[in-house]
């Protein structure tokens, strides 16, 4: 099971990012554990300066904007090559 974290203050973009990832996982039939991280210290610990950020299995794969559905599908299917 993939461990996915959405990093951000809980703003609208962070909520939309979590929703895009959840929907991509549901469509792909992939089970994920999705956590929303709002603690600024923990976010900074990942080196993310622009939110929302996305961390998959401990690796930052995205920061600074809502990822598109195609990118989220790549992540849940196992590819982090499209990291942005």
The 3D shape can be described as: globular
Could you tell me the number of beta strands? Answer: 4
As a percent range, the share of strand residues is 25-35%
Specify the CATH homologous superfamily: Glutaredoxin
Give the low-confidence spans.
none
Q: Could you report the average pLDDT, rounded to the nearest whole number?
A: 93
Tell me what the CATH architecture is. Answer: 3-Layer(aba) Sandwich
Structural class: alpha+beta
Q: What's the CATH class label?
A: Alpha Beta
Q: How many DSSP helices? A: 3
Q: Termini separation (Å)?
A: 22 Å
Examine the coordinates and then state which fold CATH places here, giving the name of the CATH topology: Glutaredoxin
Determine the fraction of residues in helical runs and give it as a percent range. Answer: 25-40%
Q: Provide the domain count.
A: 1
For the biggest β-sheet, the strand order reads 2-1-3-4
Radius of gyration: 11 Å
Characterize the main sheet. 4 strands, mixed
């Amino acid at each position: 099971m993939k461990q996915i974290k959405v990093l951000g203050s809980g703003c609208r973009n962070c909520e939309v990012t979590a929703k895009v990832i959840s929907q991509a996982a549901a469509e792909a039939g992939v089970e994920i554990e999705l956590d929303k991280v709002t603690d600024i210290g923990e976010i900074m610990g990942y080196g993310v300066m622009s939110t929302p950020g996305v961390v998959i299995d401990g690796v930052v794969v995205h920061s600074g904007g809502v990822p598109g559905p195609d990118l989220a599908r790549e992540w849940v299917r196992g590819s982090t090559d499209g990291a942005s």
